[in-house]
């Protein structure tokens, strides 16, 4: 009997359909910073974050149910009584760390820094993941990964360097910008933590996990609305449309595309977006909002991306790309049966 043909994945096996999906994913991931910029022009950052999460959660739930999937029960019965379902505990943890916190940070930070600069900071996320995986996922740090992380950290120092060296700049507007950049770095760290958590989460259907973590992110971000004014009359149509675009595009639609890409061409193919998303974010900021970033920003981006390239293992490439959802879903999709198309 003839043995079954083994499927190959990766850039070499990708066809026009896979490249089209990757281009769409890159466009969605890059556009999130632009939509945030437009949304916060008339809407408070908390409302932008919470609105985006609830819109995405509802859309992903509809998609999950359309595929015939259901959430697990909230409580399970044990000998000692009822307790929360283990999967809900994991989805809640990933939702808080990977969605509630960073999704609140990015709109706040983009009040003080350009959308393109926010995109540049996202390039550091895969390098955070390397360090965390060493401590919490039993992954080895070889010389390549250490060198890549140090290069990426050098890129961050280039970004923050002028304000770190100038004591006067630490006050007033420049000081606020420095705090915002620190917040962006914390947000990318939260994304990386959620990746490591997702790798240890119980095996489940990708669409169930996707809908669950975004729903938990929305639930735990909602209390932030208690600390912000609510004045819908001051919101522009552009800002409202941008929030809907953020929820439906970079969060909900991107999640479905990620599942399709990994199953058709593998995570190594999706990792190509690591090098493109930050650059496209810078280009969109310049074209739409006429942002003019300083030359050190482009040098820092080159250094960080070089660090990502150096750090990537040939056997296990870094799989994070684009917005948070790509990193969180990828381990779950990879764990599923590659022959199975349903999710």
Which secondary-structure class do the elements indicate? Answer: mainly alpha
Relative strand content: under 5%
Strand and helix order: HHEEHHHHHHHHHHH
Please summarize the sheet with the most strands. Answer: 2 strands, antiparallel
Total beta strands:
2
Side by side, the strands of the main sheet go 1-2
Q: Structurally, how many domains make up the residues?
A: 1
User: Number of helix segments?
Assistant: 13
pLDDT < 50 runs, ≥5 residues: 1-6, 167-173
Compute the separation of the termini in Å.
31 Å
Mean pLDDT, to the nearest integer, reads 83
Percentage of residues in helical conformation: 55-70%
Principal-axes geometry comes out as: globular
Radius of gyration over alpha carbons?
20 Å
